[in-house]
Backbone:
């Protein structure tokens, strides 16, 4: 099953990541491999666009938790945005919707 | 057209899906598709279907990771639509594995409330999700493995494929 992760950096420590595909026990290691190199002090903000993710399980959340931990340790910002309803529902079920920084809609439009 | 309410679902093959697989992580996609099919047949909404598929995926992931230690192992899966004594439609999902007996203590977290980022482990969170979605979560330790049952009670009036309008 395909999972695409596209990373864009602007040189000022702001990183935009677009994820496309199902994030589950099979594909989440690919997401982790893509995100882990980003969790460095040179980066100040990491924004994860999830509009292309129709389904995510707890292994996906656990992968994103590493981003939260990076933000807390480094003082950076780790944001999820453009979530589909099913993924937003997952964060609500897990009672993590208030733990993560989840922006409404497209963060580039002023979230 | 199938009318679930008038069928003897225990005897009929309508509303049932079953298969056996070698438990490996990529099989979760097959399982997920089958759960979506049975949920659609039962008439669940997209959101309900997503939740039910999530819970089943999480159980499978726990069997794969904790039961078989991410090595190939035999798993039998069966799902069915059942009408209970109150006339409510239920979705039943049964797993049978041949892994070592699971420590059931780790499954007793149905009352979990708020998580913090520091508390999150994939297994623990998955179990919390299963309990939050499913109405019944049962585990039976067998001599040669484990049997798991998840039951989701559909909302009253849920109309599935073939149900009377």
Residues:
């Amino acid at each position: 099953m395909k999972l695409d992760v596209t990373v864009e950096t602007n040189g000022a420590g702001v990183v935009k990541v677009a994820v496309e595909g199902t994030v589950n026990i099979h594909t989440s290691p690919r997401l982790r491999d893509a995100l882990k190199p980003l969790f460095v002090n040179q980066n100040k903000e990491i924004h994860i666009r999830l509009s292309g993710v129709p389904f995510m399980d707890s292994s996906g959340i656990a992968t994103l938790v590493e981003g939260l931990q990076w933000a807390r340790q480094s003082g950076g910002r780790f944001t999820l945005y453009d979530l589909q309803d099913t993924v937003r529902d997952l964060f609500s079920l897990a009672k993590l919707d208030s733990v993560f920084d989840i922006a409404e809609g497209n963060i580039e439009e002023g979230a | 057209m199938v009318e679930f309410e008038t069928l003897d679902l225990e005897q009929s093959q309508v509303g049932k899906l079953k298969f056996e697989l070698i438990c490996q992580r990529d099989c979760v996609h097959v399982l997920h598709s089958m759960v979506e099919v049975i949920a659609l047949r039962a008439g669940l909404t997209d959101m309900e279907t997503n939740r039910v598929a999530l819970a089943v995926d999480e159980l499978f992931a726990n069997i794969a990771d904790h039961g078989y230690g991410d090595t190939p192992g035999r798993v039998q899966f069966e799902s069915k639509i059942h009408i209970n004594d109150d006339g409510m439609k239920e979705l039943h999902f049964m797993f049978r594995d041949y892994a070592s007996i699971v420590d059931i203590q780790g499954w007793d977290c149905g009352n979990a409330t708020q998580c913090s980022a520091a508390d999150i482990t994939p297994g623990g969170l998955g179990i919390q999700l299963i309990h939050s979605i499913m109405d019944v979560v049962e585990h039976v330790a067998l001599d040669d493995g484990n049997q798991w049952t998840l039951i989701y009670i559909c909302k009253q009036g849920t109309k599935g494929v073939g149900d009377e309008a």
In short: Strands of chain A lie at 3-9, 14-21, 45-52, 77-81, 101-103.
